[in-house]
Amino acid sequence: MTRSKLISGLRPVLFTLPAMIPFAVFWLAPLLYVLYLSFTEWDFMSPEKTFVGWENYTDLLSNPAFYKALRVTVLFCLGSVLPVILLGLGLALIMNKKLKGSALYQVLLFSPWVTPTVAVSIVWSWIYQPEAGLANAVLNFFGLDSIGWLQDPKWALTGVLLVTIWKSVGWAMIFYLVALRNVPSDLLEAGELDGASPVQKFLRITWPLISPTTLFLFVVQLVSALQAYDQINVLTQGGPSGSTRTLLYLYYQSAFESFQIGEASSVAVVLVLICMLLSVLSFGISKRTTHYQ
Amino acid sequence: MPIFSRISGLVHQIFFAALALLMAFPFYWMVTSALKTNDEIWRSPPTLWPEVPLWGNFAAAWNEAPFARYMGNSIFVAVSIVLLQSINSGMMAYALTHMKFRLKGVFAGVILFGYMVPATAVYLPGYLVLSELHLLNSYAGLILSNCVSIFSIFLIRQAFLQVSHELVEAGEVDGASHMRILWTILVPVTRSSFAVLALITFIDQYNNYFWPMLITKDPSLQLVSAGLRSFFVEGGAYGLKWPLIMAASAFTIAPLLLVFLLAQKTIMQSVNMTAGSSKG
What we know:
The complex is a heterodimer of chains A (293) and B (280).
Chain A: H1 3-37, E1 40-41, E2 50-51, H2 55-61, H3 64-95, H4 102-114, H5 117-127, H6 134-141, H7 156-181, H8 185-193, H9 198-226, H10 230-235, H11 247-256, H12 261-289
Antiparallel strand pairs in A: 1-2
Helix pairs in contact in A: 1-12, 2-12, 3-7, 3-9, 3-11, 4-7, 7-9, 8-9, 9-12, 11-12
Chain B: H1 2-34, H2 38-41, H3 56-64, H4 67-98, H5 104-116, H6 123-132, H7 139-144, H8 150-161, H9 165-173, H10 178-189, H11 191-207, H12 210-215, H13 224-236, H14 242-262, H15 264-277
Helix pairs in contact in B: 1-14, 3-14, 4-8, 4-11, 4-13, 8-11, 8-15, 9-10, 11-15, 13-14
């Protein structure tokens, strides 16, 4: 091979290195490392990591705390993703009509998404304050009893979910607005001429055409629900009595609070597997059911 | 019919005005609570506007913890990450869209795979890797560990795919190097995508909490979310300093709301693009 050929062969590699090196060091290596750690027992301090095979996994699968966290994770995902998508779509449908000041409304509805989760969660923790908080003052105003928003295991998850939904709903709405504007109006007019009712028009024309957006929002929201940490950390720290402890939070606590590195790693691997499964599934579904223009 | 449509328009207006107020109310509550005295903030039922607004609470909160330092850290780290991500996403996207090489498929696959792996799940081993590299507790660690984003690569790749090949071929005919084609032809044409990358990445990194908190224990390196959170925990979880905590939250949020107001159009446009790049 001549020198110039070698150089031109190497050039594409040089272009990819600035991204691939950090990617390998901070993503791939940790991923393989966590897989390895999940087969060991280690407390962070001792020099030795003991290889224990599948023990961490069998322990995990026989641990009630794991199933509780799994249950909270599923509830958290459903309780945040579905309302965000439905409310976002509903708002976008109403706002899609000509409306004065809609630019201002969009900015107001979108602003929670831009702001730091930690800061807004602190504000919400004041709103949820049991004695002098706004949330209970509103309930009392309507003649209802106060709720221990973040102190009562029955309500804590709802409290965290409300903040999560509040933060994302405007964001989902903007995505749907863009999608709705891209629905060709001649299709809708043709539907109208055929005598379709608004509901029929929505189900037969609009909904299929905006399905890529729905899928996109579903996947993105699901993955971010699986990774939710900031608002849980500020509002409840996984409590009371584990009622808001998701898999990710369990992972964090067993790694950085009780230093059970092996156990924590096995939780991380399970989490990665869940995310990959969901991504692959949604890719599959998107190939079958979504309509791209 | 016109009367009917006018009424329905009015109903829409009222509905949205009410909804927007409801959504924005936590922000209003934050600012007005920041202006109250401690006694007033604990009063039940709560007052909608403070009797005597104490604007000095903002200065008091600002001086009680090193917020200037925290915000400076956040802005510096976020801007550095934006610059690095623009460079490596541009180069990577160029290689993926305008160059032919054997490993292309492998690289594209690896990146797609990275898309499916939640970043938070690899925080523990990532922490250990950073510690091996002696990058814990350093700006370099904060910046380098975030300097690649798969979202950014996707976004730029998508933009490059839409640039006509004739433009690039014209450059090749003129004998321009790949670097020249990338920076003088492709980047200017796709600058709106780079603007989106910069905005979204800046917002994400300024708001970043979990990972920076894990890898920096030194308070002088804390980013603003972590700084605010320690102020919250140390200063007043027991209700001693709620007005100051609300004031601190307000100036933590303020720069982002400002960026958002100035760059609304680009951010709204980003929605179009991310929705587009998700199809890729």
